[in-house]
Write a structure and sequence with these properties.
CATH class: Alpha Beta
Order of helices and strands: HHEEEHEEHEHHHEEHEHHEHH
Number of domains: 1
CATH superfamily: Zn peptidases
Largest sheet: 8 strands, mixed
Shape: globular
Strand order of the largest sheet: 1-2-6-3-7-10-8-9
CATH architecture: 3-Layer(aba) Sandwich
Length: 348
């Protein structure tokens, strides 16, 4: 009889623990185990794979992850949005503004998988209680801001809707696998309305990279990100890029207005080992980037995080080496960001 009572009590404890990751008052269920295996980041991570994985994560973690779209790309692909967590605090993460940097999309999808699994299982990650943090903070993830460009890098110009138009554009690197811009030949991280006029450019025509467009925020991908930011009140934002293992965290236009940025940047550096870059001084250099626009527009911290080691020229790294290239150092990033956002929310 005592054994039966012990078994019933144990089952009740497990049920209550799993319920902690379900929204209050909801009827959703969550997986019985927090096993992170929905995403395989050690592959060439395509748009189609991202869509498949996003919906699989939503199926595995109902009430914890949901999937929607914030808009469409030039060629009509959904700009997929994952929401992870259920707290009032809000953090925004963006991947693959640049086409050849699609490993950042794999990183964000793997992050969603790993952190959702930790929430369900009650496991701590990097010393943080992920379940509690995701009860306080919701993470908004746009894993692939530039899906048309990613598709071009991975499958070549014949995969574009207008191959002749793509081939007519100026190439500043060798080969389409080094393409950086969107399918219109506009560099999306030079498109935001923050010192856009002052932004230097190595080209004045649609190109594989560096072209800032003929006006700020002309591209649908950038318009969608701006609209998302305006619709929400994000506590923090981060845009993920590749090559350098560094963090850009401040510019001279907003540094004094966001005193919290320095401490948060230091925490991110300590969590990853990534080097903090100096405050960006020249608008001709830092202008028109997402994080600079976000800081200027909302007076909140925002970061540009270069995930991978330098090397292999302009071409992508070997995706099969994902763990060493990215996860071994950057896996802790979301835990650190969640903690900082949660702390900021409690202070506010």
């Amino acid at each position: 009889m005592k054994k039966a009572s012990w078994f019933i009590a144990t089952v009740l404890i497990l049920v209550l623990a799993l319920a902690a990751c379900v929204p209050r008052g909801g009827s959703e269920t969550v997986p019985e185990t927090g096993k992170a295996d929905a995403v395989d980041p050690g592959r060439t991570y395509s748009y189609d794979q991202m869509i498949e994985d996003a919906h699989e994560l939503a199926r595995l973690y109902p009430g914890l992850i949901d999937v929607s779209s914030v808009g469409r790309s030039v060629e009509g692909r959904d700009l997929t949005l994952l929401r992870l967590g259920k707290g009032p605090g809000k953090v925004l993460l963006l991947g693959a503004h640049h086409a050849r940097e699609y490993i950042s999309s794999a990183f964000l999808m793997e992050t969603a998988d790993e952190y959702a699994a930790a929430c369900v299982s009650g496991a701590k990650l990097y010393g943080y209680d992920i379940r509690r943090l995701l009860d306080d903070v919701t993470v908004y993830i746009v894993p692939m801001v530039n899906p048309d460009g990613v598709n071009l890098v991975q499958y070549g110009p014949d995969a574009a809707k207008d191959p002749a138009k793509v081939r007519s554009m100026r190439m500043l690197q060798q080969g389409f696998e080094a393409w950086k811009a969107n399918i219109n030949g506009v560099d999306l991280n030079r498109q935001y309305p923050c010192h856009w006029a002052e932004k230097q450019s190595a080209t004045g025509v649609p190109s594989s990279e560096m072209y800032k467009g003929n006006a700020p925020a002309t591209e649908p991908e950038v318009k969608a990100v701006i609209a998302l930011c305006e619709a929400q009140r994000f506590t923090l934002a981060a845009s993920f890029h590749t090559k350098g293992e560094v963090i850009y965290w401040a510019d001279s236009g907003t540094n004094n207005a966001i005193p919290a940025g320095s401490g948060i940047a230091q925490a991110l550096s300590e969590a990853t080992g990534y080097r903090l870059m100096p405050v960006s001084e020249d608008p001709a250099v830092y202008g028109a980037g997402f994080e600079n626009w976000f800081r200027q527009e909302f007076t909140q911290p925002a970061f540009c995080i270069e995930l991978t080691p330098a090397g292999n020229g302009a071409k992508p790294h070997d995706d099969a080496d994902f763990a060493r290239l990215v996860w071994d150092k950057a896996g802790a990033l979301l835990a650190a960001l969640l903690h900082q956002a949660d702390t900021a929310g409690h202070v506010a």
